[in-house]
């Protein structure tokens, strides 16, 4: 009987020890499984950035006269204020240099100068990056070109497309919002108002395809998304010319994610090339060309870029047509006006697919 009790006790002890071993192994395996799951679980966090792309901004001539008359540097931006404030930042082509002087000439001059006070509108409405590569870059000479870049920087506005030499002119700008790095490059068909007859080593030119490619190659590993600005095309026409099309498509093939154009003073067609948007011309944004319906019309594009699982792409483009009034001030177009303007470039919706 005593032997039976000892034997039963030993069996019971073994069962108890075995039970705890099984429990411990199960718990350990579950912990390992959870740890493994955490390691393998991909980062599904999505971040996004939104900006408004606009066309030509000219804060001289009659625009400067209206600002001076109203004593309000914010005047040209006032009717777009809500839209401009709804984004993380905004981008456009500044077509009038800051020489440091407040003097400017009214029409019909083609030599522009922006009074220093007029930077307030650009700063207030988050134009944190501007293209300076255009045919008015040398309107105030090399000194004015370099002062423009410096003055914008002093006002926390980055710029691309010009510099003290060709290397600086091709130097990209990188902006980061919400963990998304955006790279910007800007180019022009000409540095002067001479139809590209003379070359200046202070403005990045569209014709320099080899430099475009090498700049994109260097920039690609550093950013999530690349925007190339081009200033060129035939003025006062709805369709891009061969230089615009060749340049824009080459930029996309070389690694750009979007191309944004200006200069024709009319809005032009939009192309989706290899899945990437090319805005051949957004037309005027702030300008004083009230001598025709088309030059008083402009197109702005509210662009949202998403980053998800390490992939970055355009998630939405909303087109916002504008009408320029008072030789200075764009306003959002009405629905009827918008549809008519979009029809001129082959579109029937303000949302791009």
Q: What would you note in describing this structure?
A:
The protein has 353 residues and is an alpha/beta fold. 31% of the residues lie in helices and 27% in strands. The protein has nine helices and 15 strands. The longest helix has 39 residues, at 2-40.
Q: Which H/E pattern describes the elements? A: HEHHEHEHEHEEHEHEEEEEEEHE
Percent in strands: 25-35%
Q: Helicity range of the residues?
A: 25-40%
E-strand count: 15
Shape: globular
Number of helices: 9
Alpha-beta classification: alpha/beta
The biggest sheet amounts to:
9 strands, mixed
Kindly, what is the distance between the CA atoms of the first and last residues, rounded to a whole number of angstroms?
Answer: 88 Å
Poorly predicted tracts of residues: 1-43
What is the overall pLDDT average?
A: 91
Rg value: 29 Å
Provide keyphrases for this structure.
disordered N terminus, 9 helices, about 30% helix
Please outline what is shown here:
The protein is α/β, with parallel strands linked by helices and 353 residues long. It has helices spanning 2-40, 61-70, 81-85, 119-124, 141-154, 166-169, 209-219, 242-253, 335-343, and strands spanning 46-57, 89-94, 129-131, 158-160, 173-177, 180-188, 225-231, 258-262, 270-273, 276-279, 284-286, 297-308, 311-325, 329-332, 351-352. Strands 1, 2, 3, 4, 11, 12, 13, 14 and 15 form a nine-stranded mixed sheet that branches.
